[in-house]
Amino acid sequence: xxxxxxxxxxxxxxxxxxxxxxxxxxxxxxxxxxxxxxxxxxxxxxxxxxxxxxxxxxxxxxxxxxxxxxxxxxxxxxxxxxxxxxxxxxxxxxxxxxxxxxxxxxxxxxxxxxxxxxxxxxxxxxxxxxxxxxxxxxxxxxxxxxxxxxxxxxxxxxxxxxxxxxxxxxxxxxxxxxxxxxxxxxxxxxxxxxxxxxxxxxxxxxxxxxxxxxxxxxxxxxxxxxxxxxxxxxxxxxxxxxxxxxxxxxxxxxxxxxxxxxxxxxxxxxxxxxxxxxxxxxxxxxxxxxxxxxxxxxxxxxxxxxxxxxxxxxxxxxxxxxxxxxxxxxxxxxxxxxxxxxxxxxxxxxxxxxxxxxxxxxxxxxxxxxxxxxxxxxxxxxxxxxxxxxxxxxxxxxxxxxxxxxxxxxxxxxxxxxxxxxxxxxxxxxxxxxxxxxxxxxxxxxxxxxxxxxxxxxxxxxxxxxxxxxxxxxxxxxxxxxxxxxxxxxxxxxxxxxxxxxxxxxxxxxxxxxxxxxxxxxxxxxxxxxxxxxxxxxxxxxxxxxxxxxxxxxxxxxxxxxxxxxxxxxxxxxxxxxxxxxxxxxxxxxxxxxxxxxxxxxxxxxxxxxxxxxxxxxxxxxxxxxxxxxxxxxxxxxxxxxxxxxxxxxxxxxxxxxxxxx
Length: 662
Prior knowledge:
Structural class: mainly beta
Radius of gyration: 26 Å
Strand content: over 45%
Helix content: under 10%
Number of helices: 4
Number of strands: 34
Largest sheet: 22 strands, antiparallel, barrel
Low-confidence stretches: 1-51
């Protein structure tokens, strides 16, 4: 507690000394409420010289976005994890979405996604443009020495070049034995425009080092959780790890039983334009060169290297014989450590030509192109090499008045390992008016080869799991969305149709459901304001039709009741209670060695609501999140996120965040 007090006071003092550098009234997206993780920029780009202007784009998206400075949603805006996700009881552990979201991307996929929510990738890479250097610092401390660091900086070097760097650290020993997590994430992006604005270069690089301790769940869950002798949860025995020694420090954590994922990738995108340029006279002393492209040639190079490992240095032979159907080597014949490894290298080149039918509107374009992927895989007992040739096209028309947005995309794998994979999608969006907001319709269909982990997995004990009888999955999605900022609600309805759904029926056996089934999913958000009190309600309904090997909660809901006001001119306060609930269901089990969630229909998970008390506030450039989480454990035993995986005890968490402008 003494260390926490010292760190807290130092950080507050540092924030107070630097707050004066920040032009708070110029930051877009202020206020205490809100539910969006980003905001589309539809405003003018003319600003006063001292105004902070910071915008960013994503790859392939012509729309600008602005930074979100709201303080209501701690999980999304601070932790970077949507509230609908659940983990195995500790921050940074294997996680999945309670609202089913199938993978709808064709082509090769290794299949290890249980830690995806904690990592960076090219899809969420941000390419900034700012007229002043901008930085963010974040620090979180929680129960059982949980800590988290966020660092971000971006700045323009002249009008032609911008770079952006981000680092995130998660270190959490957890409340139960052998569940430590230790993640390091790095991200660098840069974009360059030539003097004549014809040549563009974008670079994205990320490195994810994700280490998640695995304990297989606790033994005799309800009996031991209710036993007063085990009030110290770390005393409860677990199925894996036994009393394995582990050391925990913020920058040097030893986890003897873990999944160790290292993912890195670099992307370089070059564009050259032909079009019309003109010099615009702003005033007697200032000229501005404007270039409108008509035709563009674009080349994208990507190199990705991923390594997925599982390590158990003191394995329990009975556990592996029972759950994975193999025996360990006797120690006299060598180490009995259980070790698995999938290592992938993917080299991709993509060439596209783009036409802009309307001069001056880069959000209206036609894109045609193709790509070649060369993929190598190395395992403990085998290796593989293959390639893919794919063709793709896209039509996009976002009108200048920002009212209509039409998108049609297609991608087809013509040759190679994934021949026959394809993805087709179409979206029509219309902004009606301030009263009715924005509505959109979307239809998509994906035909894809199952992820590689469903077809092959091997261990250092020469045990291989092979399934060569899996056909291509096919998923169709129909979607309706409505977003109304004036009435403060949004709603999304999804209808999915599945054919040949792939899943794990045991800790090591993959299977494919050959019948058809469908899923109706409705997700809604509504905010009510009564004077200075705010009621934020999230609701989701999911209904399966068909005898499918898929278990989902029928209802998921979150309610936040808070006092939301601006006090003393500069203090934005958002304080109250938050509750989350999902209806009883047969939650997926978890296979530690394969890092996969597994279908099961024996253990029904029925939880009480998760309750938290919070006080979020912002003073100019300084934001603090003070939260008492899992208050429900004072009244009932721990909730469960999966069979034999209980959630944490009560924990006090304090998250701090600063914005700096130089």
